[in-house]
Design brief:
The complex is a heterodimer of chains A (116) and B (114). With 116 residues, chain A is an all-beta fold. Helices cover 0% and strands 55% of the residues of chain A. In chain A, the strands form two sheets. In chain A, strands 2, 4, 5, 6, 9, 10 and 11 form a seven-stranded mixed β-sheet that branches. Chain A has a four-stranded antiparallel β-sheet with strand order 1-3-8-7, with no helix packed on it. In chain A, strand 5 and strand 6 form a beta hairpin. The radius of gyration of chain A is 14 Å and the shape is globular. Helix content of chain B is 0%, strand content 54%. Classes of the chains: A mainly beta (116), B mainly beta (114).
């Protein structure tokens, strides 16, 4: 069965510091991968998605970037964090083009980021 | 682009009663409507979904209805229990051959009173 991992689980970083969050998926090949951010008590905002290695689509202009160096690895980065980057970062996967598409996304456990 | 409106933002019901959460969407091309449940500090979990070729779907105490003409869909939870307390998100997606960009509603915080 498929599983999705995120790390770290929690992170406290000072303003202006860099960021790297990692997401990996097991048990599937060629997944579509997504990064969402959830501010405290709010909904989910789509940040980036990827349909394959090196293919990144950005949804919201911001201080963040994403990369997909391997098929089942998705990384969210920032060179300099802002206070407004605080939130709950969720990675999600769904079956990609090479499989039977269902449009259903499954979320990882999330990373809670606090920028001070 | 797609916009999903969800209400109410908070809902409190007596244990054993029913709860209804309603959503509207703007893009008539949307064809997939999942519902997620998020407990405090946890990830959103898919609880039920419906596609545009179906008007209603049930799974035990949970049901979802879809009105394509009016562009609204609803979640119904019957015989509510304490473990139903959580934030519920509706969502809409056009799907597609490559990727599905899901647009989420703002969430409903459901509280079950003992």
């Amino acid at each position: 069965s498929q599983t999705i991992h995120q790390w770290p689980a929690t992170l406290v970083q000072p303003v202006g510091s860099p960021l790297s969050l990692e997401c990996t998926v097991e048990g599937t090949s060629n997944p579509n991968l997504y990064w969402y951010r959830q501010a405290a008590g709010r909904g989910l905002q789509l940040l980036f998605y990827s349909v394959g290695i090196g293919q990144i689509s950005s949804e919201v202009p911001q201080n963040l970037s994403a990369s997909r160096p391997q098929d089942r690895q998705f990384i969210l980065s920032s060179k300099k964090l802002l206070l407004s980057d605080s939130g709950f970062y969720l990675c999600a996967w769904e079956t990609g083009r090479s499989g039977r598409r269902t449009d259903t996304q499954y979320f990882g456990p999330g990373t809670r980021l606090t920028v001070l | 682009g797609e916009n999903v409106e969800q209400h109410p933002s908070t809902l409190s019901v007596q244990e054993g009663d029913s709860a209804v959460i309603k959503c509207t969407y703007s893009d008539s091309a949307s064809n997939y409507f999942p519902w997620y449940k998020q407990e405090l500090g946890k990830r959103p979990q898919l609880i039920i979904d419906i596609r545009s070729n179906v008007g209603e779907k049930k799974d035990q105490r949970i049901a979802v209805t879809l009105n394509k003409t009016a562009k609204h869909f609803s979640l119904h939870i019957t015989e509510t229990q304490p473990e139903d307390s959580a934030v519920y998100f509706c969502a809409a997606s056009k799907g597609g051959s490559s990727a599905s960009k899901i647009i989420f509603g703002s969430g409903t915080r459901l509280s079950i009173r003992p």
